[in-house]
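Lab notes, practical 5.
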Amino acid sequence: MRNRVHLRAALLSAVSALALAAAPVMAQEGVDETDETTAAVPLKPLIVTASPIASPIDELAAPVDIVTRDEILSSSATTLGGLLGDLPGVSQSSFAAGASRPIIRGLDNTRVRMQENGIGAADVSAVSEDHGVPIDPLSAERVEVVRGPATLRYGSEAIGGVVNVINNRIPKAIPAGGFSAEAGASYDSVSDGVQAHGQADAAAGNVVFHIDSFARNTDNYRVPGTPDRQSETWTETSGIAGGASIILGNGEYDGYAGGSISYYDSKYGIPDPGNPLNPVHIDMHQTKVQLGSELDFTSGFISGLKLAGGYSDYSHGEVDAAGIVGSRFDNEEWEGRAEFLHRAIGPFTGAFGVQAHRREIVASGEGGELLAPSETESAAAFLFEEMPLAGEVLKLQMAGRIEHVDVSGRALDASVPLAPTDYAVSRSFTPASVSAGLVFTPAPDWVFGFTAQHVERAPDALELFSKGPHEATETFEIGDPTLDKEKALSFELNARRTGDDYSFEAAIFHTSFSDFIYKRLTGEICDDTYDTCTPHGAGTELDQVLFTQEDATFRGFETKGSVTLMRWGNARAGLTGQFDMVRAELDAGGNVPRIPPMRAGAGVFYAGEEVSARFGFLHAFEQDRISANETETGSYTDLKGEIRYLLPASMAGGQKVELALVGENLLDADIRNHSSFKKANVLEPGRNVRFVVTARF
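Output from the prediction step:
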């Protein structure tokens, strides 16, 4: 059992937040029972990441998935990858229980932008699959996933998609009644995991204050077979944040201006069955400051202004059993953006903006052998416009972005294999991207979208300057400082239908990459230095990987839907289903490595005022479309169920208290993730029963 001092301290932070939440409730009388904390979740939440103009889903050409707060609290996921991995078109890297990034349509790492309230995660999770994202699902009010390169406003890192975590750490409005709060706790049987969280918003005049905190502790999780636990899959994570905003308005403008500060702390094991006597864990910390403001103007050419900025100080150490830090990564990063919404110019309404970003990574120890200090600076301008073509039935959306990126670091000179050296390199790139989309709404609740996009991405520092051993993935990675921009030409057709009787989404896409950058296994074996790599050396431990550019083609299809079959008053029951697949091939022959398998799922649901339930499965087919030096991955079926019960107000003291019982991998199936570097030795969690209690005030 792991030392729980870390958990107890974090739980005290959570309890403090809960106490702050509970105190004002006792003092309030006559609070409106219909405030936003008890109101039903809207059927069509506004999307803020896919377009600068806040729009419902049915007004966007790009497909968007939303994970709600209730779905977040029901999930046992400790990472964003785990939370989102069952969505159509989304899978996860699942390298470690505390480190899993989303993979969108087969694209990962530097092609999927992770962000919080529009500002990047500011971490090193894209450097390695064992590095976690310092944004915990418990901190999210909702998570928006925009699949495909549909968000040019955020930069070339969004070429594969955007995962935007939205929370209320910078309050945007005064809560109904001047106060709102939430508290909760849960237990997971598969890992003996416990977690607690609390958050509150309180107003004093036109100033709104926010506080939230969470803590989680899990042991090594259970798996089918013998041994019955997967070693080094424990986690200890906590966080605390506070923020405040001034709510503005004088008749000429309305909006808010505020800021927040947060601290994130995470420790988690790194599975390495081949070296059980010297387990390694990661000790991660991040302090983040964010500023944000939105103003709506009643007159003038500029109808709105959005400002966002953030600064992050991140570090993590990779610690062995003796407490020695073998690798250390420090990442200092800031980002700022401004968006100006304008009123109609002829038929066009839209927005334009600018973005600036600077990042410095300093690695030491074994991490310094992989990546020497590097700096990345970028500046960009972007534009988004839309116009009606046939009233409200047909709409054209267009976007463009141009940015300048400077990347500097040290690259490997292997011209003399037995005596390699490194040298300083500075590269500059000017990616330019454009997109156009049509939104067609021929009938109520029906939407068809078509997008065509040309997107360019500058190579990341890791792809340019890697030059050493990567023990976690058991690879020796070598970057290429001569890499060119990666370019993608993408076409997508999607259809959506929303409604209580049935809902439906489907998308088909085709993306042609020019100079696609990927990790290519060479078949050579290395130890910890380049001179040991075969054929010139006698390496025995690490697979040599070269960052390589080739043309590639990605194509796929994804769909999900539900249909109501029976109704009893306000209650209803029906069926759900989903399917997704992606094929990724190198134009010169062969498959792109680690592409997720085809999946299909179905289920039943019941939704009532006090009781709701769902039960279903997701089946992943065998993945035998593999690249050189990859192995096939068998199929599996993940069976899940959930029942939720909202306590009557008379039993809950007039508050909203909900109980949930959730089952995951109920068949106790042997699940291996094809996208994971550790799939041969690390199983996904076995059967889990999760109990959740949530109270909202």
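Observations recorded by the TA: The chain is about 5% helix and 55% strand. Confidence is low (pLDDT under 50) at residues 1-45.
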